[in-house]
Amino acid sequence: MTKNTKVNAAILIIGNEVLSGRTQDTNTSTIALWLNSIGVIVNEVRVIPDIEETIIETVNHLRQVNDYVFTTGGIGPTHDDITALSISKAFNTKYEIHKEAFKILEAYYKLGEFNEGRQKMVWMPQNSRLILNPTSGAPGFNVENVFCLPGVPSILKSMLGGLTNKIVGGEPILSHTINLRTVESEIAKSLTKVQDNNIDVEIGSYPFFQAGKIGVSIVIRSVEKSEIDKCVSEILIFIDKRKIEIIKR
Q1: What string of DSSP letters covers 147-192?
Q2: How far apart are CA 171 and CA 1, in angstroms?
Q3: Given the DSSP bridges, would you call strands 40-48 and 7-14 parallel, antiparallel or unpaired?
Q4: Which domain holds residue 196?
Q5: pLDDT digit string (tens) for 191-247?
Q6: What is the pTM for the complete model shown?
Q7: Do residue 88 and residue 20 come from a single domain?
Q8: Residues 114 and 142 placed together within one structural domain of the fold
């Protein structure tokens, strides 16, 4: 892949606890921001339960239509952590003890603490490549274009840096935000014209509340700074004509 190639990815959040609302998903934002910074566009995000058949079917679909797939959750020591086994079945490969992972965790835990439950975390698809974990020892893994990460946000975040050299992205995706004291309906028509004039740029508008008043954030995203600057100039023209207040957040 070259730097001008558009590279895409899917994020797959695995876990009943997210679907039930007991756990709030912050991993999507963490992964998406990191991917954008290395030039990978997130095509879609899915949240699915800890059901083997569902994991297998979803992974097999996503890995065929995306350059990369990132899964989170289900690689811990408990009975409902079935991601690694499911990935093995998705790739129709043997599920076995990863010798390097075993050595890492055997050295990480004190004598007698590396029990049967924790040893479950070293069972992976055959020929998995490890994703090292600087926070809690237990590594993630990847098979071909599928990268499996833990569900704990702080641990996941600490592991992303080690993946940067393993992911081939395009140009980093740049972003510029303009915050306005207005409502979406007041700027919708003008913003649509700007978008129509700049079809290669992604322009979004997002309402927010600050100090009891409503506002709108306009977010412009592109791999080219010159294209972002052009959009900003066009937006500032209609903002000035309508005397809409620009606010800092």
Answers
A1: EEE-S-HHHHHHHHGGGGGG----SPPEEEEEEEES-HHHHHHHHH
A2: 11
A3: parallel
A4: 174-246
A5: 999 999 999 899 999 999 887 889 999 999 998 999 999 999 999 999 999 999 999
A6: 0.81
A7: yes
A8: yes
